[in-house]
Amino acid sequence: MAVPSPAYEEQLKAYEGRAATVAGVGKDPVNEPMIRHWCEAMGDTNPAYAGPDAMAPPTMLQVWTMGGLSGHTGRSEAYDELFALLDGAGYTSVVATDCEQEYLRPLRPGDEITFDALIESVSGRKTTKLGTGYFVTTRMDVRAGGELAGTHRFRILKYAPAQRKQRKRTEQPSPKDRTNPKSRRPRPVINRDNAGFWEGVARHQLLIQRCAGCRVLRFPWLPGCNACGCLEWDTVEASGDGTVYSYVVMHHPPFPAFDPPYAVGLVELSEGVRMVSNVVGVPYDKVRIGMPVRLEFQRYDEELELPVFRPGGTGEGGGG
Length: 320
Hints:
Elements: H1 6-13, E1 19-25, H2 32-42, H3 78-88, E2 93-103, E3 113-122, E4 126-127, E5 131-144, E6 147-161, H4 175-179, H5 195-202, E7 207-211, E8 217-218, E9 233-237, E10 241-250, E11 262-269, E12 274-278, E13 292-299, E14 305-311
C-alpha cells in the first residue's frame, strides 16, 4: 500500500476533538435486573451489587450507554465520515484494541444516564502484525443526573490487512514447519498480573490464586478478588486432578502451529476453579463431560511448555 500523503493525514487529524455523540440518553435507567444478569454472567457475588443499597459494578459503565440495534439519537456524522475516509484509502478492516475506564461516582438503580462522546485522537500511520493503519480513540463522558460518573475510552485499529502466503487447505504441516519460529504455537501474554502463574508452570506447578481477605480461590489470575475486592493474595498449588466440565472440538483449517481436529476442555479442578486447556492422549471424539483428567506439562518447543490434561492421568500418545 502506498504511503499516504501529509495532506491525507492532516484530513484525519482534523477529526480530533469532533463530537461523535451529543446529548445521548441511556435507553434504560440503571436497574437491578441488568445488574443481576451481569453479575451472574461474570460470576461476581460481591454483596455490594445486591439488596436495597445496591450499586452497579463499575465495569458496567458502558452498558448503560449502549444503543442496541436501533442506535442512539444525537450521533454526529463525524465518526462515519472518518471511517469513510479510512475505508476509501484501503483501511477497510477494524479490530478493537483496548479500552480504559475511570470511575468518579457509583451508579445506583434509578439513575438516569446521559453521555457525550468525541473523537479524542487519530494516530499516525502504524504498522502492526495485522496490517498497516490508524488507531482511533473515542472518549465518552457518562453522567448520572447531570453529574459526571465516569469516562470510557475505546480504541480501535482501522487497517489494511497484511498480505500473507496462504497454505492450501489440503496441505498438511511438515516437521520442518513445526520447528520454524514463524510457525510455532503463539506465545502466552505475560504481564504483572499473571507472571506468577507462568513462573509456576516453568517449575511444573499449577498455581491458583487465593484471596488473603475472604480466602476464596480464583482462576484465571486477577489483580484483585472478585468476591470481596481485596487486593492481597497468595497461592495454592493445584493437586492436578480434575474433570471435564465442558469441551469443544476445533476444526479450523490447519496451520503449522496446530493440527486439528483437537479437543479444548473447560476443566474443573478438584479445588473448585476451572481452566481452559487441551485434553490430550485420547481421540478428540472420545472426550466426554465428566471425564476424569490429570494434569501434565507438555513441551511444544524449546521455549514453550504448557499445562494440559490427560484422561485419568494414564495413557499414551500426544495431542493438543
